[in-house]
Amino acid sequence: MSVQQQPEPRPPAAPPPGGAGAANVTPAAVAGGATAPLVEMRHISVAFGGVKAVDNVSIDVRPGEVVGLVGGNGAGKSTLMRSLSGAHKADSGEILIDGKPVTIANPRDAKNAGIETIYQTLALADNINAPANLFLGREILTGVGTLDDSAMEDATRKVMGRLNPNFKRFRSPVRNLSGGQRQSVAIARAVHFNAKVLIMDEPTAALGPAETEQVRELIRQLKSEGLGIFLVSHDIHDVIDLAERISVMYHGRLVGTVDKTDVTIDEVLGMIILGQPPDKLNREQIQSLR
Ligand SMILES: Nc1ncnc2c1ncn2[C@@H]1O[C@H](COP(=O)(O)OP(=O)(O)OP(=O)(O)O)[C@@H](O)[C@H]1O
Ligand SMILES: [Mg+2]
């Protein structure tokens, strides 16, 4: 059993089949720097008053990888991710993108670095359709300066054809779509603009079983295209199903990062609830969680 406190080099991810959203990610990241994470957060700390919400945490994500970020309520998961999405600047620590240090002081810096966030609220405009949401604030215009609706619909059909071929409701206001379809629109918007890294904070929390499966399928697709995904979830089954590695936080600290294949669900639960890595937990402690 290996518990990494700090990232270690690992074999390259399988080369992704390609796709517009991943086009600027994969060749260099996979071929050139096989061991280079897309994003590396080093020794990040964030305090609110006297509370250390995030305390010296280091995590990373590689191309084509889902890293599950788990921990109890208030463990610091969202705060850590907010320091990557530019919503809240870290007090200390370093963020590296493709091995180079960057400053992420606001959401624009994060987007420019290829980091997109899918918020639980999805931040969609309910009264307009999927293409209009995809291009909201970045509309395609015709030669005479009017909105080029057909170009935007075509582009939306193209990206959706990759992500969720079952999606057909391109002309309905998104308020009429199901929760899973709305997730598809939010994700399509992120990947259309060349996200390399997606942060998903509780993407399935508000969804029923069928829609949860739809979102899991979307995540598998994004992974196969070479994106790196930080998946924050209370649903241990989401994490076990989708993640390659699991990083566990407890009271602001990183308990450890484990390869999914090295641990049992009970051991991950032990890390979450008792705040200790599996090699420090004994059988009785793990059994006491049942
Ligand atoms: N804006 C804020 N101001 C003050 N304290 C905050 C703020 N945001 C978070 N905190 C505190 O920081 C700690 C970490 O909170 P955070 O929301 O990051 O946890 P979390 O792991 O995402 O929890 P949950 O699973 O409930 O979403 C908590 O003690 C929380 O109360
Ligand atoms: Mg949270």
Q: Can you describe this structure?
A:
- By secondary structure, the chain is of the alpha/beta class.
- The chain contains 10 helices and 11 strands.
- Strand 10 (245-250) and strand 11 (253-259) form a beta hairpin.
- The chain is globular.
- It starts with a strand and ends with a helix.
Distance between the termini: 22 Å
Number of β-strand runs: 11
Tell me the quaternary state. single chain
Structural class: alpha/beta
Bound molecules: adenosine-5'-triphosphate, magnesium ion
Computed CA radius of gyration, to the nearest angstrom: 19 Å
The backbone outline, from C-alpha atoms, is globular
**In what range is the share of β-strand residues?**
15-25%
Unreliably modeled segments: 5-33
Major sheet: 7 strands, mixed
Summed up, the helix count is 10
- The helix fraction, in percent, is 25-40%
Secondary-structure element series: EHEEEHEEHEHHHEHEHEEHH
Q: Return the average pLDDT rounded to an integer.
A: 85
Strand order of the largest sheet: 1-11-10-4-9-8-7
Structure in a nutshell:
The protein is 32% helix and 22% strand. The chain has helices at residues 26-32, 77-85, 107-112, 130-134, 149-163, 179-192, 209-224, 236-242, 265-274, 283-287, and strands at residues 3-4, 39-48, 51-61, 66-70, 92-97, 100-102, 115-118, 197-201, 228-232, 245-250, 253-259.
Write the layout of secondary structure elements.
Elements: E1 3-4, H1 26-32, E2 39-48, E3 51-61, E4 66-70, H2 77-85, E5 92-97, E6 100-102, H3 107-112, E7 115-118, H4 130-134, H5 149-163, H6 179-192, E8 197-201, H7 209-224, E9 228-232, H8 236-242, E10 245-250, E11 253-259, H9 265-274, H10 283-287
Parallel strand pairs: 4-9, 4-10, 7-8, 8-9
Antiparallel strand pairs: 1-11, 2-3, 2-5, 5-6, 10-11
The site of adenosine-5'-triphosphate (ATP) has 11 residues, from strand 3 and helix 2.
